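Suppose a colleague, Dr. K., hands you the sequence of a protein chain of 364 amino acids and asks what its three-dimensional shape might be. Before reaching for any lab equipment, you can write down a predicted structure in token form. Begin with the sequence itself:
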Amino acid sequence: MTLLLSYRRWWAIIFVGLLVLPFFGHFMGDLPTPVRTRIAPEEQWWRNAAARLDPFINETFGFRGVMLAGNRAYLRVLKSSRSRPVIIGAEKQMFYTGDQNLEKALGTVVDSEGLARLFSVIDDLNARAKAVGAKLVVTSPPSGETVYFDLLPSWARAQKVKPTEYDLLQSAMAERGVTFADLRPALIASREGGRPYRRTDTHWNFRGSLIGLNEVLKAAGRPDLEVSEEKMLGPLEPEISGDLVRLNGDPPSKDDENYRVNDWNGWREHITPIDGIFATPDEHELFPPYAYETGHPGPRVLIYGDSFTQGYWPPFLVDRVSALAWTHHKYCDADLSAVERFKPDIIIYAPTQRSLACKAAPAP
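The predicted structure, expressed as tokens, is then:
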């Protein structure tokens, strides 16, 4: 009878409530979650439920987003590095899962507020482009998960939804009348003629970057500037494994390949730096901007990009443009007034797919 004491009854009610709370979590609002690696129980799970059913249950519990967010916060406090943001798909293709890269490629995460800020920045850039008589082209180097979607594990492919952030960017540019270069079809189709992305790295290789650049030049109405793959690229050569191998905790090795760029170093010999376009970068700047005259005829080109364009496109453009400037997009905080100082003919805004949605605006 002592179990019926009032204070024990209240503890019993609280205990039962905690037990059933995950059930209601299946129907109530939750935080965004990483994609699930198990989307259904294995066949005949009842024969060995501990091995065949538990992994599915561990991926489908209520309030999964809240629990995983809490776990991430806990690991950050402890400075734990036990999680490795890499998965390996078919043909040993490696994929990056940090920065919600996989979720954004699959469309399971869409940052509407970040995209709205991106569109606002592009509106500002487009107005500046018109004021100086420049052609604005917006594009985005797609992630390896998009180009090699068929090589992702089956559990990831099964969770693909539309629209992705890339799709929404394309639609928004069409509504605004801003030229958009969708690089996905050309890069996916190019796989029949050779790899456009590295196997062990988040980045495209030189062939993929050249194909992407040509698509942008066509969109800009300058097919005359397109780069010949046969002329500029040599054969595939062994290359030290990329950033995904490092993130996976594996030792570096020459088990990846990239295309040789003909006359790779020669493009630097005749350029003349242009001062005053960008602020002097800090000595620790990871992506220092640059601007230079080439001594060749052609348009003046200004690029807002990231690691997919910083070092990849200059060798292909240097003898096709009269001046080239590059700066990081800084997640929508780049200095757009460089447009007025550089006075380009073509402006390319090219954040990679995982960086489309702008980061939160800095506090005033």
